[in-house]
Protein backbone atom coordinates (compact mmCIF):
# COMPACT_ATOMS: atom_id res chain seq x y z
CA UNK A 1 0.00 0.00 0.00
CA UNK A 2 1.04 3.62 -0.50
CA UNK A 3 2.40 5.18 2.67
CA UNK A 4 1.47 8.80 3.41
CA UNK A 5 1.33 10.77 6.63
CA UNK A 6 -2.43 11.40 6.43
CA UNK A 7 -3.11 7.77 5.48
CA UNK A 8 -0.99 6.45 8.34
CA UNK A 9 -2.35 8.71 11.07
CA UNK A 10 -5.99 9.05 10.02
CA UNK A 11 -6.91 5.91 8.05
CA UNK A 12 -4.68 2.95 8.87
CA UNK A 13 -6.16 0.61 11.54
CA UNK A 14 -3.98 -0.23 14.53
CA UNK A 15 -1.99 -3.48 14.36
CA UNK A 16 -1.81 -3.24 10.56
CA UNK A 17 1.90 -3.69 9.70
CA UNK A 18 3.43 -1.83 6.77
CA UNK A 19 6.53 -3.11 5.04
CA UNK A 20 9.07 -0.30 4.81
CA UNK A 21 11.01 -0.80 1.59
CA UNK A 22 13.09 1.73 -0.35
CA UNK A 23 9.92 3.18 -1.91
CA UNK A 24 8.42 3.93 1.52
CA UNK A 25 11.58 5.02 3.34
CA UNK A 26 11.19 8.79 2.89
CA UNK A 27 7.50 8.69 3.83
CA UNK A 28 8.44 6.60 6.88
CA UNK A 29 10.94 9.26 7.95
CA UNK A 30 8.31 11.99 7.44
CA UNK A 31 6.12 10.14 9.96
CA UNK A 32 8.72 9.57 12.66
CA UNK A 33 10.97 12.63 12.25
CA UNK A 34 9.46 15.84 13.64
CA UNK A 35 12.36 17.95 12.40
CA UNK A 36 11.22 17.54 8.79
CA UNK A 37 8.09 19.64 9.48
CA UNK A 38 6.31 18.27 6.44
CA UNK A 39 2.67 19.38 6.54
CA UNK A 40 -0.32 17.20 5.66
CA UNK A 41 -4.09 17.67 5.53
CA UNK A 42 -6.63 16.09 7.84
CA UNK A 43 -9.75 16.46 9.96
CA UNK A 44 -9.70 17.64 13.58
CA UNK A 45 -12.52 15.68 15.29
CA UNK A 46 -12.32 17.76 18.47
CA UNK A 47 -12.97 21.05 16.65
CA UNK A 48 -14.93 19.54 13.73
CA UNK A 49 -12.86 21.28 11.08
CA UNK A 50 -10.43 20.55 8.27
CA UNK A 51 -6.88 21.56 9.10
CA UNK A 52 -3.20 21.20 8.36
CA UNK A 53 -1.10 18.99 10.64
CA UNK A 54 2.58 18.55 11.37
CA UNK A 55 4.58 15.92 13.26
CA UNK A 56 6.08 17.37 16.46
CA UNK A 57 7.80 14.27 17.90
CA UNK A 58 11.37 13.81 16.75
CA UNK A 59 12.00 10.08 17.18
CA UNK A 60 14.93 10.84 14.95
CA UNK A 61 17.43 12.44 15.23
CA UNK A 62 16.97 12.88 19.01
CA UNK A 63 16.46 9.12 19.30
CA UNK A 64 18.49 7.98 16.33
CA UNK A 65 18.68 4.44 17.71
CA UNK A 66 14.97 4.02 16.96
CA UNK A 67 15.63 3.82 13.22
CA UNK A 68 18.44 1.28 13.54
CA UNK A 69 17.42 -0.64 16.68
CA UNK A 70 13.64 -0.33 16.52
CA UNK A 71 11.24 -0.79 19.41
CA UNK A 72 8.32 1.22 20.73
CA UNK A 73 7.88 4.94 20.20
CA UNK A 74 5.41 7.78 20.65
CA UNK A 75 4.55 10.26 17.91
CA UNK A 76 2.59 13.48 18.41
CA UNK A 77 0.99 15.46 15.62
CA UNK A 78 -0.27 19.02 16.01
CA UNK A 79 -3.23 20.75 14.40
CA UNK A 80 -1.78 24.01 13.11
CA UNK A 81 -5.10 25.84 13.26
CA UNK A 82 -5.82 25.09 16.93
CA UNK A 83 -2.59 23.68 18.43
CA UNK A 84 -4.48 20.53 19.48
CA UNK A 85 -2.10 17.60 19.84
CA UNK A 86 -2.92 13.96 19.03
CA UNK A 87 -0.83 10.98 20.18
CA UNK A 88 0.13 7.76 18.37
CA UNK A 89 2.02 4.73 19.67
CA UNK A 90 4.12 2.80 17.17
CA UNK A 91 6.30 -0.29 16.88
CA UNK A 92 9.19 -0.59 14.42
CA UNK A 93 11.22 -3.72 13.62
CA UNK A 94 14.36 -3.09 11.54
CA UNK A 95 14.76 -6.87 11.19
CA UNK A 96 11.43 -7.51 9.48
CA UNK A 97 11.16 -3.94 8.14
CA UNK A 98 7.62 -3.75 9.56
CA UNK A 99 6.13 -0.58 11.04
CA UNK A 100 2.71 -0.28 12.66
CA UNK A 101 0.52 1.67 15.01
CA UNK A 102 -0.31 -0.12 18.25
CA UNK A 103 -2.48 2.64 19.71
CA UNK A 104 -3.72 6.16 19.18
CA UNK A 105 -5.92 8.92 20.58
CA UNK A 106 -8.25 9.98 19.03
CA UNK A 107 -9.05 6.70 17.27
CA UNK A 108 -9.27 6.24 13.50
CA UNK A 109 -13.04 6.09 13.92
CA UNK A 110 -13.04 9.47 15.70
CA UNK A 111 -11.31 11.08 12.73
CA UNK A 112 -14.04 9.86 10.36
CA UNK A 113 -17.24 9.51 12.36
CA UNK A 114 -17.65 13.26 12.79
CA UNK A 115 -17.40 13.65 9.01
CA UNK A 116 -20.32 11.32 8.25
CA UNK A 117 -22.72 13.29 10.45
CA UNK A 118 -23.28 15.53 7.41
CA UNK A 119 -25.34 12.65 5.98
CA UNK A 120 -27.93 12.68 8.76
CA UNK A 121 -30.44 14.34 6.41
CA UNK A 122 -30.09 11.40 4.01
CA UNK A 123 -29.83 8.41 6.32
CA UNK A 124 -32.17 7.45 9.15
CA UNK A 125 -30.54 7.31 12.57
CA UNK A 126 -30.25 3.52 12.44
CA UNK A 127 -28.33 3.59 9.14
CA UNK A 128 -26.11 6.43 10.34
CA UNK A 129 -25.21 4.25 13.34
CA UNK A 130 -24.45 1.33 11.01
CA UNK A 131 -22.13 3.52 8.96
CA UNK A 132 -20.44 4.54 12.21
CA UNK A 133 -20.09 0.89 13.25
CA UNK A 134 -18.49 0.02 9.91
CA UNK A 135 -15.83 2.69 10.44
CA UNK A 136 -15.31 1.70 14.07
CA UNK A 137 -14.92 -2.00 13.26
CA UNK A 138 -12.43 -1.33 10.45
CA UNK A 139 -10.47 0.98 12.76
CA UNK A 140 -10.11 -1.91 15.18
CA UNK A 141 -9.10 -4.48 12.61
CA UNK A 142 -12.49 -6.14 12.00
CA UNK A 143 -12.77 -6.24 8.22
CA UNK A 144 -15.60 -8.68 7.54
CA UNK A 145 -17.94 -7.03 10.04
CA UNK A 146 -17.22 -3.61 8.53
CA UNK A 147 -18.24 -4.97 5.09
CA UNK A 148 -21.57 -6.20 6.53
CA UNK A 149 -22.53 -2.68 7.58
CA UNK A 150 -21.35 -1.05 4.36
CA UNK A 151 -23.46 -3.53 2.41
CA UNK A 152 -26.50 -2.62 4.51
CA UNK A 153 -26.02 1.05 3.63
CA UNK A 154 -25.76 0.13 -0.06
CA UNK A 155 -28.94 -1.96 0.14
CA UNK A 156 -30.79 0.82 1.95
CA UNK A 157 -29.99 3.31 -0.83
CA UNK A 158 -31.20 0.87 -3.49
CA UNK A 159 -34.42 0.05 -1.61
CA UNK A 160 -35.06 3.75 -1.05
CA UNK A 161 -34.78 4.33 -4.80
CA UNK A 162 -37.15 1.42 -5.45
CA UNK A 163 -39.78 2.94 -3.15
CA UNK A 164 -39.68 6.16 -5.18
CA UNK A 165 -39.90 4.24 -8.46
CA UNK A 166 -42.82 2.18 -7.17
CA UNK A 167 -44.67 5.30 -6.00
CA UNK A 168 -44.15 6.77 -9.48
CA UNK A 169 -45.64 3.64 -11.03
CA UNK A 170 -42.39 2.86 -12.84
CA UNK A 171 -41.56 -0.46 -11.14
CA UNK A 172 -43.56 -3.11 -9.26
CA UNK A 173 -42.45 -5.32 -6.37
CA UNK A 174 -42.68 -8.62 -8.26
CA UNK A 175 -40.30 -7.43 -10.96
CA UNK A 176 -37.92 -5.78 -8.52
CA UNK A 177 -37.51 -8.59 -5.99
CA UNK A 178 -36.87 -11.33 -8.55
CA UNK A 179 -33.92 -9.40 -10.03
CA UNK A 180 -30.27 -9.70 -9.10
CA UNK A 181 -28.65 -6.59 -7.64
CA UNK A 182 -26.97 -5.53 -10.89
CA UNK A 183 -30.32 -5.82 -12.67
CA UNK A 184 -32.02 -3.77 -9.94
CA UNK A 185 -29.46 -1.02 -10.41
CA UNK A 186 -30.14 -0.90 -14.14
CA UNK A 187 -33.89 -0.68 -13.54
CA UNK A 188 -33.37 2.13 -11.01
CA UNK A 189 -30.67 4.00 -12.93
CA UNK A 190 -32.80 7.17 -13.14
CA UNK A 191 -33.40 7.11 -9.38
CA UNK A 192 -29.87 6.44 -8.19
CA UNK A 193 -26.67 8.56 -8.11
CA UNK A 194 -24.54 8.15 -11.23
CA UNK A 195 -21.54 6.88 -9.27
CA UNK A 196 -23.55 4.01 -7.81
CA UNK A 197 -24.91 2.92 -11.20
CA UNK A 198 -21.48 3.23 -12.83
CA UNK A 199 -19.85 1.19 -10.07
CA UNK A 200 -22.42 -1.51 -9.48
CA UNK A 201 -19.60 -3.99 -8.84
CA UNK A 202 -19.25 -2.49 -5.36
CA UNK A 203 -22.09 -4.68 -4.14
CA UNK A 204 -20.46 -7.86 -5.46
CA UNK A 205 -17.23 -6.97 -3.64
CA UNK A 206 -19.10 -6.25 -0.40
CA UNK A 207 -20.96 -9.56 -0.66
CA UNK A 208 -17.73 -11.39 -1.43
CA UNK A 209 -16.20 -9.85 1.68
CA UNK A 210 -19.04 -11.07 3.85
CA UNK A 211 -19.00 -14.63 2.49
CA UNK A 212 -15.50 -15.43 1.21
CA UNK A 213 -12.76 -12.86 1.88
CA UNK A 214 -10.60 -12.91 5.01
CA UNK A 215 -10.20 -10.07 7.53
CA UNK A 216 -6.92 -8.84 6.08
CA UNK A 217 -8.29 -8.56 2.54
CA UNK A 218 -11.45 -6.78 3.71
CA UNK A 219 -9.41 -4.28 5.71
CA UNK A 220 -7.11 -3.64 2.76
CA UNK A 221 -10.10 -2.57 0.64
CA UNK A 222 -12.35 -1.02 3.28
CA UNK A 223 -11.28 2.59 2.65
CA UNK A 224 -11.92 2.30 -1.09
CA UNK A 225 -15.45 1.02 -0.51
CA UNK A 226 -16.16 3.50 2.30
CA UNK A 227 -15.13 6.38 0.04
CA UNK A 228 -17.34 4.90 -2.68
CA UNK A 229 -20.34 4.97 -0.34
CA UNK A 230 -19.47 8.54 0.66
CA UNK A 231 -19.30 9.66 -2.99
CA UNK A 232 -22.77 8.18 -3.53
CA UNK A 233 -24.05 10.03 -0.46
CA UNK A 234 -22.27 13.22 -1.56
CA UNK A 235 -24.20 13.10 -4.85
CA UNK A 236 -27.47 12.63 -3.00
CA UNK A 237 -26.56 15.39 -0.53
CA UNK A 238 -25.82 17.82 -3.36
CA UNK A 239 -29.20 17.04 -4.92
CA UNK A 240 -30.92 17.39 -1.54
CA UNK A 241 -29.34 20.79 -0.90
CA UNK A 242 -30.28 21.92 -4.41
CA UNK A 243 -33.92 20.87 -3.78
CA UNK A 244 -33.90 22.75 -0.47
CA UNK A 245 -32.54 25.87 -2.16
CA UNK A 246 -35.14 25.66 -4.94
CA UNK A 247 -37.96 25.22 -2.42
CA UNK A 248 -36.75 28.18 -0.35
CA UNK A 249 -36.39 30.38 -3.43
CA UNK A 250 -39.87 29.41 -4.67
CA UNK A 251 -41.37 30.26 -1.30
CA UNK A 252 -39.72 33.70 -1.27
CA UNK A 253 -40.77 34.39 -4.86
CA UNK A 254 -44.38 33.47 -4.04
CA UNK A 255 -44.26 35.82 -1.04
CA UNK A 256 -42.80 38.56 -3.23
CA UNK A 257 -45.55 38.14 -5.83
CA UNK A 258 -48.15 38.33 -3.08
CA UNK A 259 -46.67 41.54 -1.70
CA UNK A 260 -46.44 43.13 -5.17
CA UNK A 261 -50.11 42.35 -5.90
CA UNK A 262 -51.10 44.05 -2.67
Question: Mind sketching the topology for me?
Answer:
Blueprint: H1 5-11, E1 18-19, H2 25-32, E2 40-44, E3 49-55, H3 65-69, E4 71-79, E5 85-93, E6 98-105, H4 108-116, H5 125-139, H6 143-167, H7 173-177, H8 181-187, H9 194-198, H10 201-211, H11 215-261
Antiparallel strand pairs: 1-6, 2-3, 3-4, 4-5, 5-6
Helix pairs in contact: 4-5, 5-6, 6-10, 6-11
Structure description:
By secondary structure, the protein is an alpha+beta fold. It has helices at residues 5-11, 25-32, 65-69, 108-116, 125-139, 143-167, 173-177, 181-187, 194-198, 201-211, 215-261, and strands at residues 18-19, 40-44, 49-55, 71-79, 85-93, 98-105. A 6-stranded antiparallel beta sheet has the order 1-6-5-4-3-2. A hairpin with a 5-residue loop joins strand 4 (71-79) and strand 5. The longest helix is centred in the last third of the chain and has 47 residues, at 215-261. The chain is flat and about 75 Å long. The model has no long low-confidence stretch (mean pLDDT 91).
Please tally the β strands and state the result.
6
Number of helices: 11
Backbone shape: flat
Beta-strand fraction estimate: 15-25%
Give start-end ranges of low-pLDDT stretches.
Answer: none
Elements, N to C (H/E): HEHEEHEEEHHHHHHHH
**What structural class do you assign from the helix and strand content?**
alpha+beta
Global Rg: 23 Å
* Helix amount: 40-55%
Structural key phrases:
262 residues, 11 helices, 15% strand, 6-stranded antiparallel β-sheet, 55% helix, alpha+beta
What is shown here, in short?
The protein is α+β, with helices and mostly antiparallel strands.
Amino acid sequence: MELTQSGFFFDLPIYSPIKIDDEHLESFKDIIDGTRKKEFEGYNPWRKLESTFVVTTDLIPSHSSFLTSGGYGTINIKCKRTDDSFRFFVLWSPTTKEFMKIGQYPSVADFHISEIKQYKKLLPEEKLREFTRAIGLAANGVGIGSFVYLRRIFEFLVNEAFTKAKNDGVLDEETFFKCRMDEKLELLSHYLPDFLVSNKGMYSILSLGVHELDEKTCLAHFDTLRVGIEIILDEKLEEFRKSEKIAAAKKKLDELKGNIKK
